[in-house]
Design goal:
The chain is an alpha+beta fold. The chain folds into 2 domains: 21-153, Heat Shock Protein 90 (2-Layer Sandwich); 157-246, Heat-shock cognate protein, ATPase (Actin, Chain A, domain 4), CATH 3.90.640. The protein has 5 helices and 9 strands. Strand 5 and strand 6 form a beta hairpin. The two termini are 37 Å apart. The model is unreliable at 1-19 (pLDDT under 50).
């Protein structure tokens, strides 16, 4: 009996050690106004519940991300998600009044925690918006947070050796996309500014490694879709400020 109690105690401690660093979240699900001339708006993002600096930073950054995706007028002071949804709706209604044949707009925004350890948490925000024209626009954003400092991290803050990481990423990018190492980075049709490789706007920690996502139009045409490069931690830990056991 004592043997089994010992095993149970060990498992309880093990589970506790694995979960003690986890933040607490609840889903925040919002829908736009429902009417005949209203755009379709669906928002599903995590809301951090902990009374900590990083929870405050997460909720603030997610709010700002949603506002940026939905707000149309630069002159309009939008302070929260409800106002951003109203701004998106009003913009469509105004356009619909002028052009009755305008196709319905839509906005879908989904956020998910994709990585968390004792030091860092990463949230991915996938969005799709259609505001007329030939097609809509989808994008992926990574938000990385330092849990101890309670701040959102800029991309350069992820690395001990940013230049070394960029050179390594270029080598891996060329291999993945079949670009000869001694050729111009745009030799096969990419559109890197100045014919020079650069990291994307969105870099994030994932379970599989550090992931780089070039959204549509960032370095290629819309038809090419997003370009994704995943670099295993075993290969990039040497460049990272926050190492991950692989």
């Amino acid at each position: 009996m004592k043997k089994y109690l010992g095993v149970l105690l060990f498992l309880w401690i093990l589970v506790g050690c694995q979960t003690e660093h986890k933040l607490t979240f609840e889903p925040l699900n919002l829908q736009g106004e429902s009417c005949q001339n209203c755009p379709e708006i669906t928002i599903n993002i995590p809301h951090a519940l902990d009374d900590t600096g990083v929870a405050t930073a997460i909720n603030r950054s997610l709010r700002e991300e949603v506002i940026a995706l939905l707000s149309f007028s630069e002159n309009e002071d939008v302070g929260d998600i409800d106002q951003a949804m109203a701004s998106f709706t009003d913009s469509y209604k105004e356009l619909k009044t002028k052009f009755p044949d305008e196709i319905g707009w839509e906005a879908k925004i989904n956020g998910e925690i994709i990585y968390e350890d004792a030091n860092l948490v990463t949230i991915v925000v996938n969005s799709y918006t259609f505001t007329g024209g030939a097609h809509g626009y989808g994008s992926t954003s990574y938000l990385n947070f330092d849990k101890r400092k309670g701040t959102e991290l800029e991309n350069w803050e992820l690395f001990d050796d940013p230049e070394g990481f960029e050179k390594f990423a270029e080598t891996k990018f060329r291999i993945q996309e079949d670009i000869p190492q001694d050729s111009n980075i745009n030799a096969t049709g990419f559109m890197f500014e100045g014919d020079m490789f650069h990291l994307p706007y969105n870099v994030g920690y994932t379970q599989d490694g550090v992931q780089l996502i070039y959204n549509q139009y960032e370095v290629a045409s819309y038809a090419d879709g997003p370009i994704v490069l995943t670099l295993p931690y075993a290969e990039v830990n040497v460049y990272l400020k926050r190492k991950v056991k692989s």
